[in-house]
């Protein structure tokens, strides 16, 4: 099997990670593209003594730590990208990297230590620091779009444990739009397939046509959204999910939101 074939299954998830790290599909994809270009240019330098996924993320982090792609003009930037850059300029990225790599991408502490070239104990400290930042986030009103009662209850518990309020739990596209207009949320958590065979994606599109709000998609089929075509979600959680994954995604979505933008 060629190196390209080994890396291909991991690319959608690297794009997910890069977008969550930068808060932007444009910038995240630019780093992934630069990573792949570096691998193609010098395949003999790709780490051969580790799992291909580890090698891919290690190469990505080498690009991330040595480049300034986010400073390059990309054209057509929106307010959320500007907020993201203001946030990133103020915070050390290592705690965010450690949290996302463990909670969102499922790497072990030892894996993360390899990826960002730190001791495992230091990685654990970074994760604790990131979790402290989560607790300091501004409270938000959250709309949950989920038709499976047990999953909806689990998500609601996680949201409330983080100190946020739940405005409603919608099970159809029509319900979701109505609830969003009745009490405008500061965050939307949305499943893709809803109770009446309507689409959570369409519900989100309807909501975003009226208000600007960060969205996290939760789905058992991430490959349907991570196709490399625009538009794609910046924040995406795969079912079945870990509570820590949902917490990390919520913190990152609010991290890049207007309500918590630095002055």
Instruction: Give the N-to-C terminal Cα separation.
Output: 51 Å
Give the uncertain stretches in residue-range form: 70-76
Strand content: 5-15%
Secondary structure: helix percent: 40-55%
Shape: globular
Mean pLDDT metric: 84
The total strand number stands at 5
User: Structural class of the helices, strands and pairings?
Assistant: alpha/beta
Multimeric status of the protein: single chain
List the total number of helices.
Answer: 12
Radius of gyration, taken over Cα atoms and rounded to an integer in Å: 18 Å
Modified residues (4-aspartylphosphate): 191
InterPro entries: CheY-like_superfamily, PhyR_sigma2, PhyR_sigma4, Sig_resp-reg_PhyR, Sig_transdc_resp-reg_receiver
Domain Response regulatory: 141-254
Protein name: Response regulator
């Amino acid at each position: 099997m060629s190196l390209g074939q080994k890396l291909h299954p991991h690319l959608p998830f690297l794009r997910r990670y890069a977008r969550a790290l930068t808060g932007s599909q444009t910038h995240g994809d630019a780093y992934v593209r630069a990573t792949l270009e570096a691998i193609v240019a010098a395949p003999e330098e790709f780490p051969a003594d580790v799992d291909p996924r580890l090698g891919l993320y290690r190469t990505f982090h080498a690009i991330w730590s040595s480049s300034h792609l986010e400073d390059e003009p990309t054209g057509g930037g929106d307010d959320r990208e500007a907020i993201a850059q203001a946030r990133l300029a103020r915070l050390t990225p290592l705690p965010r990297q450690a949290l996302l790599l463990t909670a969102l991408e499922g790497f072990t502490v030892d894996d993360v230590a390899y990826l960002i070239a730190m001791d495992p104990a230091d990685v654990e400290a970074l994760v604790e620091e990131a979790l402290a930042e989560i607790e300091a986030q501004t409270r938000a009103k959250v709309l949950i779009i989920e038709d499976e009662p047990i999953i909806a209850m689990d998500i609601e518990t996680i949201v409330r444990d983080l100190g946020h309020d739940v405005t409603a739990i919608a099970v159809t596209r029509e319900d979701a739009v109505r609830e969003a207009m009745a009490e405008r949320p500061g965050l939307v958590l949305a499943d893709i397939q809803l109770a009446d065979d309507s689409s959570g994606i369409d519900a989100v599109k309807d909501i975003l046509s009226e208000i600007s709000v960060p969205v996290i998609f939760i789905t058992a089929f991430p490959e349907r959204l991570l196709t490399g075509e625009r538009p794609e979600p910046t924040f995406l959680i795969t079912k079945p999910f870990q509570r820590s994954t949902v917490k990390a995604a919520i913190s990152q979505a609010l991290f890049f939101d207007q309500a918590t933008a630095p002055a």
